[in-house]
Amino acid sequence: MGVKAFYHHNLCLCRRCDFDYYHMEEKRRRKLESCCIGLDGEREKIEEEEEAIDSLLEERKSLILSLRKRKRSLLLHIKRKKQQQKVADDGGGVCVLTDEFIAFEILTRLPVRSLLRFRSVCKSWLATISDPSFIAAHLDRSARRAPQVLLATIAHDHPCMIGFHSYDESEPMLVATFLSGIKFARKQIVLALPHHCNGLLLLTTMTKLLVCNPSTRELAVLPEGSHNVLTWPGRRLNCDAGFGFDPCTNSYKVARYFYRCYDFAARTCSMGFEVFTVGGGEESSWRLLPEDPPYPITNMVPSFVGGSIYFKVCNRLHSSAPKAFLAFDLEEEKFSVVDPPASLGPVDDDCSNMIIVGLGGNPCLVCWSKDKTKIDLWISEDCSNHAWIPSFSINLLQPVKSLCFLAYHNGKLLLRLKDESERLEYYDPQRKSFEPVVHVQKELAFYVQENTSIRFFPEMAAVQLTSYAESLVPLQPKLS
Questions:
Q1: Which of 75, 211, 239, 338 measures 20 to 30 Å from 354, CA to CA?
Q2: Is 247 exposed, middle or buried (0-12, 13-18, 19+ CB in 10 A)?
Q3: Burial of 474 by CB count in 10 Å (0-12 exposed, 13-18 middle, 19+ buried)?
Q4: d(Cα 444, Cα 215) in Å, to the nearest integer?
Q5: How far apart are CA 15 and CA 191, in angstroms?
Q6: Confidence check: pLDDT of 93 > 80
């Protein structure tokens, strides 16, 4: 073999070795990459399993805490029942009043503002004040006291805040106590009459529906419901929502109607109805009812009495609609037609001369005369059949622009009368006489915020009054 052939042979061997080495390295690199990919996949699986285990541990921890809390609540409830039974049993021996029983009875008589501070005293007081049975007992005592009036106000110098003030007519000083306030991003020019139920309020503003407890300062902004295409002529707010308590599910519900389309000339429309459960959790949303209201509903503030929300039927959008009310049962979530008394005589369209309010826990139908100087009242002791019984009449000395029934206490009606200004008066059906309480614009002072100077209500751009009983009722229900 010559030198040239030998050199060529060795060069080919070197090139072949380089080629084999390159392929070996390439195979090794791909194998390492596949191993790394496999390891990454295993690591991701391990991380996912660790997250799942952590979430299970958190769920187990929260479940244990909730069970312990429920156990403490049940033990406290059983203990309190035994103490009450021991106190009630006076047949054999001396009654023993325990410290827990005495503390319970004292705390239920205190205002909410004091109870909120006393939760920090000790763990036992915190457990007692947070207990659903205590909240119910405190609400019962609050409702049986002299009636309170809540004033929802919008000040000229605070147009982006709605303030809540409480006025107790049994107090000697004519001062409304500041409870809380809600701030908005834009000015609130008008405010509909708040709906009150067990210390909670439903507010209808220019932009939102809100549920709040002014005493505890809890607030929930409801999500936007179905679009209502109907804007009533001459009104800047749609009073399309009612608010009440469902004792079957122990929950508070907001019920509202909405119009999909309408034609006043043809007297036709299409509308729907939806319900929102307050405190239903993160997934709370409006539930559209499968059955639409049987008749169109007019834009008047609905009222809640005896488990049902009462709406007025709109005769202008239905050719054969009755001059009556629609009662929406919060438990069954169904409608029923409530006719006015047959002896009432001619009824105005949309029942504009009458309303249904609560009187002693029963539905009360209130009807105005055409000259606005006489008011007739019918009571129904049956919330299902609505058999109206004539109760009494109120003769006004002069007509008023509006009259609102706020409370019924000790056989007297607390009324809000509005003409040039607003005033509160008691009406005694037995004596057929009025008793002045306070003139809102001239006599009643208030605080815009806590610890600020006293002002008077003529400075307010808007004032709405409703009956009120302060309570600890939470917007998010607790375990019982």
A1: 211
A2: exposed
A3: middle
A4: 20
A5: 91
A6: no
Three-class secondary structure of residue 344 per DSSP: helix
**β-pair partners for 424:** 416, 438
CA distance 184 to 159: 9
The answer to whether 365 touches 381, Cβ cutoff 8 Å, is no
Answer for the pair 392, 379: CB distance below 8 angstroms, yes or no: no
* pLDDT tens per residue across span 313-362: 888 888 888 888 999 999 889 999 988 888 776 777 667 778 888 887 88
What token pair was written down for 39? 């390891």
Q: What domains lie within the chain, and their CATH numbers? A: 83-130 (no CATH), 147-468 (2.120.10.80)
Q: Which residues pair with 270 in a beta bridge?
A: 261
Three-state secondary structure call for residue 189: coil
Give the number of other Cβ atoms within 10 Å of residue 227's Cβ: 8
**Cα of 400 vs its chain's centroid, Å:** 31
pLDDT in tens, 218-252: 888 888 888 888 776 555 556 788 999 988 888 89
The rounded distance, in Å, linking the Cα atoms of 248 and 238 is: 29
CA 76 from centre of chain: 28
List, edge to edge, every strand of the sheet that includes 362-368: 354-359, 362-368, 374-379, 389-395
Instruction: Note the pLDDT tens digit of each residue in 412-422.
Output: 888 888 877 78
